[in-house]
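Technical annex B. To support the medicinal chemistry partners, we prepared a structural model of the target in complex with pyridoxal-5'-phosphate, based solely on the information shown next.
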Amino acid sequence: MSEAVRIPSFDLRRNYARIEDEIIEAVRRVLSSQCFIMGPEVSEFEREAAAYLEAPRAVACASGTDALLLALMALDAGPGDEVITTPFSFFATAGCIVRLGARPVFVDVEPDTYNMSMERVLDAVTPRTKAVIPVHLFGQLCRLEEIAPELARRDIPIIEDCAQSFGAHRMYGDRIMRASSWGRFGCFSFFPTKNLGAYGDAGMVCCREQGDSDRISRLRAHGAAETYIHDEPGLNSRLDALQAAVLRVRLRHVETWIEERREAARRYDLMFAERGVLDVLTPPVEDAGNRHTYHQYVVRAKDRDALQNFLSGRGIVTRVYYPMALHVQPCMISAGYARGDMPVAERLTEEVLALPMFPEILPEEQERVVSAILDFYRG
Ligand SMILES: *Cc1c(COP(=O)(O)O)cnc(C)c1O
């Protein structure tokens, strides 16, 4: 009976089946070389990923979290500094700030795009502001053109958290601005479920200046530009060759997969519009001029928790990104925020639901998801 077949929130096995032969060949190439840490696979991946992103420079590292940490370390962020960011993101965004002893300054998000409200960023700037970390959440870019010129005038660097937005872009006049184009640094994650995922942890920092890429390269390898000469204490955050080889294969297909995600998103949009559920459920909004890459398809739903349980009973797996805002996380107490300070983000934590979304999702599966949602609200 088809009702019994589970619909996962993402399905990496279906994706692997499409590229298995290419992956095996790439992995075999690395195994034959017996060269596992850094090396030509990593530098080729950096070159190819930078070309795709139209980024002048790219330095691969061990995770998206490390990418953010390395960017902040390259700015010498630490105690006494403030870093402006969003309260509605994965923990790592603000976690990196606190870990370096700096203070996160939160700016609430917009209810439709879920991204940090650009208008309010400049109001949050103080003489202590070291950087701004906007997050391009769920695959959609922030309107950075609204703040980048003013921040540049004040010499405040932007670190773009691009972990969920590989391949996203946004028009600026008739120019295509890709993820990481506005920032001094653009930080990517290749966690397996991201739009471009490795088969383990991996990340990358994009930047423009040679000096910045030199510093990041040094910091990712114990602060040593030359073997055994350590200019400063860094991290061990190298990318390994097996992950780079996997990423090189998957990079060749990522455009197709992003287009498939966008088609799936359009199908959900259409199904919701036709069934008249928009009084109880708000589909995600694609901001004008954006190419949303639908890392997640996140709706806002009335009675979210009950809906999620109901769907689970029908074998449909959904997720809540994110159930707790960052300003009220236990380890953020010293930043001085309280419940009620970020009303939009707090409301979203109670309303958002990520529906099954992956390149291989079938229209029949989406139909089952939408019908089940209708059954929940209309009985
Ligand atoms: C995934 C993610 C990160 C962290 O990436 P890892 O590779 O898991 O360390 C940071 N920020 C955001 C917004 C993310 O989604």
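Notes passed to the chemistry partners:
The chain has a mean pLDDT of 96.
Residues 88 and 345 are 6 Å apart (CA to CA).
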